[in-house]
Amino acid sequence: MKPFIPDKAFVDPRSLKYEDGQRIIENLKNYQVPIFHSRKVEIEGNSKKEDYLKAKKTVYVTVNKQKKLRVCRPSADYQFALTSSCPGHCEYCYLQTTQGEKPYMKIYVNIDEIIDVIKEHIDKHLPDITTFECGSITDPVALEHITHSLARIVDFFGRQPNGRLRIITKFDNIDTLLSAKHHKHTKFRVSLNTEYIIKTFEHRTSSLEERIRVAKKVSQAGYPIGFIIAPIVIYEQWKEDYTDLIQQLSDLFADYEEEITFELIQHRYTQTAKELILSRFPNTKLDLDDKKRQLKWGPYGKYKYVYPKEISSKMKQMMYSLIETEFKNARIEYFT
Ligand code: SF4
């Protein structure tokens, strides 16, 4: 897909003292993005919807001074961020509720300091291996054509005997990553869904075909790979469509002999997320009928609505059996 170009970039004056900050601002200028030097991001829409749409085209170049990383179960030990938010408009994005009414994208430029913090967390757990996720509050690849920061981090992890990185994306601008010296210390996971789900709900992200191409390219570049199938949604043709998806993957990766991991996540929502989705996407085709769901207590102190046990058990069974039949080299990490 065409790489995302922001409409506007605000620049925190603190970013200017970092070499990476200067470089990223130069890249934004090369993309003809208007630059505003300010400690404040100004987004003036005429409605909440307009605020949201404008924010999704605005970046803020700033610094990330976080010293203590948050844990990130079940996918890794810790999470860190090079960017926040994302230019995608996935209707069920879990960031809908955490990024506020104006989810503009932050680009962090103090990469060396972020690396120091990661290194401290690795050292704290020696001689164990510590794993890190960089896609918890962002899509880490979506802005890579502007920042080139992810490639630097991948190189860094390539040199860490006791550190491992996990990337997840729905975007296909991965050129900088293909030549990074990862030494197999970065696991590259592509987020997939059925063609119907991607086209209906995951606006302004790469298509299924483009994402599969990403998985092919990164596997050829030697990265360990995995697929996250999320959210698994029940709709009229869901069984046929998820079966087609797994069979298609199995055909395309028939020659790939290394392990392929799968992470499977059923669709869920909180009441707050539901209200936001309905205000931002009033014509959504997402089934948000509470009566068809069951409540589950979430780790962040909120109830979420998941599929009733008898349905989610069938979903889990179907996905496990499909993957185990179609792949000889698959490992399912979790279904949740
Ligand atoms: S690509 Fe990921 S982070 Fe971006 S909107 Fe979609 S779900 Fe959210």
Summarize the structure.
The protein has 336 residues and is of the alpha/beta class.
Notes on the structure:
α9 runs parallel beside α11. This protein is α/β, with parallel strands linked by helices. 34% of the residues lie in helices and 23% in strands. The mean pLDDT is 96. The protein has eleven helices and 17 strands. Residues 86, 88, 90, 93, 95, 139, 170, 202, 205 line the site of iron/sulfur cluster (SF4).
What is the topology?
Blueprint: E1 8-11, H1 19-30, E2 35-37, H2 48-55, E3 58-62, E4 70-72, E5 76-79, E6 83-84, E7 89-90, E8 105-108, H3 111-124, E9 130-133, H4 144-147, H5 149-158, E10 163-169, H6 175-178, E11 186-192, H7 195-201, E12 202-203, H8 208-220, E13 225-232, H9 238-252, E14 260-266, H10 271-280, E15 294-297, E16 303-306, H11 309-326, E17 330-335
Parallel strand pairs: 1-2, 1-3, 3-8, 5-9, 9-10, 10-11, 11-13, 13-14, 14-17
Antiparallel strand pairs: 4-5, 6-8, 7-12, 15-16
The chain binds iron/sulfur cluster (SF4).
